[in-house]
Amino acid sequence: MRNTKLFIGRKVRDLREANRLTQAAFAERIGISTSYLNQVENNQRPVSAAVLLALAETFRIDIADFSAGEGDRLLSALSEALSDPLFETFRPSLQELKLVAQNAPGFAHALIAAHQAYRRNSEQLASFDDTLGRSAALAEPSPYEEVRDFFHFVDNYIHELDMAAEALAAALDIPERDPASALAEHLERRHGVRTTHDMPGESLLRRFDAERRILYLNPFSPASTRSFQAAFQIGEMEMAAAIEAIVDNAGFRSVEAREICRIGLANYFAGALMMPYAALQDTAHALRHDLELIALRFGASVEQVAHRLSTLQRPGAKGVPIFFARIDRAGNITKRHSAAKLQFARFGAACPLWNVHQAFETPGRIIRQLAETPDGVRYLCLATEIAKGGGGFRAPQRRYAIAVGCEVAHAGDFVYADDLDLANRAAFDPIGISCRICERPNCAQRAVPPLKRRLVVDRNRRGAVPYRLD
């Protein structure tokens, strides 16, 4: 059974300091002793249900804001970093890792960044491919890695952009109106920008001519893509100051990372404008997260819907905690976010037993899987293939699979779970995060040994893999 004790000392301390109260005054308000509060704030004792309710009632906060799952992303990344053989002589317990993630998140981020630099350095030196002359750049993360981690650790929710997009959507009557016409009219009325689909000989999705005030959209793109690109242009024009402030506060190391993040934030605004928060949350509940029906309701693609659902993390109004990922045919995770306990590997490919890989074999269908990770948490996993292209017979087609799902406790909110035997543990497939950190001893699909286990090789015995784990 998993440990369900709630250690939230740093959050309690932050709440006390935000209200400018001493420990004695804070403890008196919620009816506990000062010594008990001191132990809670230092994570020496867990918070009881009675204290949690007292915090919620006294300070008018949502209990969900104290969820232990909020630190799962940082805990997962820290655990994966420390599984490296580099740290073989130091193996902290799970409780020690939780204490670091909860009480010293800045230190945890610094350690993760140092480990990433170490891995990049080691891999590039090992390849010995003329990179020795560029040794000063070896320790730098790629701009995409920086931006991906930024969104990952802010829970993929940007409050200022989300609220602004929802307000504009209400003013434009989205989703009641067709988003394509509503967005085009807004661009012309507010910014004097004319939208046209006349892009002869161009394969771009979008091109903005600032001098002539014309937004060109590819006529062969799906309507959902054209709407998204129009919404992106609105975000570029109306949220520039807010986006710049967010980028400044992120502290990126490179100009490239800042530019990529600007695009990512404008993309975030576009998704939130096409699928405003409350309307999407209500629709998802009413349609029980039927991805295709939600897509039709908002004039969006299934991928856009799945991604947007994973961002419903507004304090006090959180949606079902969902994970989302996009995977290419080589198994590379090109997009990822998890509001659930399931976290994705930062290095290596995804588990081959995960149903997302099967989606390429069944295009056009949403396939389902009940899965259990090594920590005993069980999930409803959905996967489907998507193709991106357009422009005729010779135009290149990009194929991906997207994965979306939730913990089984929330499966009742999904239409896809109706005829599945959620109570039968045998119905759940054993999956992992990635082979390098998965310690399942008898996995027939294992690609590489786990980093923290000793191998036992017996030439007289051969199973699915040529070794056993000690």
Overall description:
This protein has 16 helices and 11 strands. The longest helix is centred in the first third of the chain and has 23 residues, at 105-127. Strands 5-4-8-7-6-9 form a 6-stranded mixed β-sheet. Strands 1-3-2 form a 3-stranded mixed β-sheet, with helices on one face. It folds into 4 domains: 9-66, 434 Repressor (Amino-terminal Domain); 71-140, no CATH class; 159-279, Arc Repressor Mutant, subunit A, CATH 1.10.10; 323-460, no CATH class. Mean pLDDT is 85; it is low at 125-139. The protein is 41% helix and 12% strand. A hairpin with a 5-residue loop joins strand 6 and strand 7 (378-388). With 470 residues, it is an alpha+beta fold.
List the helices and strands and how they pair.
Layout: H1 9-18, H2 23-30, H3 34-41, H4 49-59, H5 72-82, H6 94-103, H7 105-127, H8 143-153, H9 159-171, H10 179-191, E1 194-196, E2 206-209, E3 214-217, H11 223-238, H12 240-250, H13 255-274, H14 277-286, H15 291-298, H16 302-309, E4 323-328, E5 333-338, E6 367-372, E7 378-388, E8 398-407, E9 429-430, E10 455-456, E11 468-469
Helix pairs in contact: 2-3, 5-6, 5-7, 6-7, 8-13, 9-13, 10-11, 11-13, 12-13, 15-16
List keywords for this structure.
470 residues, alpha+beta, 434 Repressor (Amino-terminal Domain), Arc Repressor Mutant, subunit A, 4 domains, six-stranded mixed sheet, three-stranded mixed sheet
